[in-house]
């Protein structure tokens, strides 16, 4: 399917979910890495006439940033209700892992400082940060493998996940090495998909079909010193989240201890850990313990990526993790629990394989978006009135 | 004039509009490593840029810098993305911290360069040498000639360095491609 078709279906499904028609949507935003379809085309195909659109260049950490931008656009009076979409053929066309035509392209200009050394894919680009974390803090491969193990447990209760099979620490460590310290199972999936989020005023959201998720705070693409040359500025084990967290928690009026569930970007097992650590969910250097002690498992204190995330559900550059937290806040996660007569699921809170993935008590969530070690985003959501 | 050449089967290009990279790689091709020195704040910077990342001044000059340092971090690649590297697995991507200007202007900063581990003559290092290098290994620069006006900085184990503690390596050795 083309990205145009994928985007059209995702936006259409989001409109149905919200109970909105084309006439109710008057804004559209998207992001891409030169691999997608623009808003004017998708809007036109759905009979939407935007009063505002903006398509930006971006990958991971764009989702949260665009939600914040949408708020500003609405408050500026430029439009009333915005759809944000990301449509990508990350498997069939432009591979997220950088293989295919991108891999053999000429090495031009600034690329003589990185690609010339076989340093091209995200796995290769981030590996120095990951490796140095193990060196400085004694973080172990077994601890990090638990990110994949836990996300695979969550995915086993997600009928839509690409990989629903539960894996063990041994499965991760015995999968082939891609670029140390990353094994195959430390890396996210590559998939074709589109996802969409609708942002509108709280007043209008109350009249939509579902209980709304209210935006409590956003930080968008906050940077480390030196930007893309971040490795010039140490410790390289510190990521942009350290710079984003003060703004995030002071804007949110809550702290990490108040968060019931997280969506920490898992392009790799390590990225979930680094974001949780530098956004302050544990002390610096203790991320390996945090991700492996059961805290972020369903039934634990603060489950992470309950859909299975990028490691197991689907790779969408972050949108799916925001969508999952919205489902959690509605109390209506689409697992295999039986539907009641009101159309809502009767959740069992039995987190065994193929069971429930609804968090029992969840009123506030945090998404922690990763772009690179040098920039990241975050979004705190809370449940609106039922 | 656009500079072009081939290295490990990859085609390398520096456009004639790209003054910073033209100057940087020309010094490399002349066998002497140079970096930009800020005329305003006196700091040396990498990679080449138009302005100084510490004081924003645009005026700079190229000065010789010693190509010696220590491995600050590394990755050992077992799955090549680029076709050029498929015949050289596993290969190391080093992040090397230069001795020059380490800890300036703040304790967290240093001039850090990426590069591969190579033999003293500039060939990508064989597997047994790859296995001997990790965080803490002392290395020195090898400038590998590619074309007129273009040589690529690479790194080899510095056998002249005083004896060191064994380097830190990722705990799981092996891994087949």
Summed up, the helix count of chain A is: 13
For the biggest β-sheet of chain A, the strand order reads 2-1-3-7
What oligomeric arrangement do these chains adopt? heterodimer
From the alpha carbons, calculate the radius of gyration of chain B and give it in angstroms.
17 Å
Terminal-residue CA separation of chain B: 40 Å
- Low-pLDDT residue spans of chain B: none
The main pleated sheet of chain B reads as:
5 strands, antiparallel
Number of helices of chain B: 2
Helix/sheet category of chain B: mainly beta
Net shape of chain B: globular
Which range does the strand content of chain B fall in?
35-45%
In terms of DSSP E residues, the strand content of chain A is: 15-25%
List keywords for this structure.
heterodimer, A: 386 residues, alpha/beta, 4-stranded mixed β-sheet, 13 helices, globular, B: 177 residues, mainly beta, 5-stranded antiparallel β-sheet, 2 helices
Structure write-up:
The complex is a heterodimer of chains A (386) and B (177). Chain A has helices at 3-18, 39-45, 62-75, 101-104, 122-137, 141-155, 169-174, 202-206, 241-252, 269-278, 287-292, 309-312, 319-330; strands at 27-32, 52-57, 81-89, 107-108, 177-179, 182-183, 192-200, 213-223, 261-264, 364-372, 375-383. With 386 residues, chain A is an alpha/beta fold. In chain A, helix 1 (3-18) crosses helix 2, helix 6 packs across helix 10 and helix 9 (241-252) crosses helix 10 (269-278). Chain B is mostly beta strands and 177 residues long. Helices cover 8% and strands 36% of the residues of chain B. Chain B has 2 helices and 10 strands, in the order ββαββββββαββ. Chain B has helices at 19-29, 127-130; strands spanning 3-7, 10-14, 34-38, 44-45, 60-64, 68-77, 91-98, 112-116, 138-147, 150-157. In chain B, the strands form 3 sheets. Chain B has a 5-stranded antiparallel sheet with strand order 8-7-6-9-10. Chain B has a 3-stranded antiparallel sheet with strand order 4-3-5, with helices on one face. A two-stranded antiparallel sheet of chain B has the order 1-2. The longest helix of chain B has 11 residues, at 19-29. At the A-B interface, strand 4, helix 5 and strand 5 of A face strand 2, strand 6, strand 7 and strand 8 of B. Strand 4 (107-108) of chain A pairs parallel with strand 2 (10-14) of chain B, so a sheet runs across the interface.
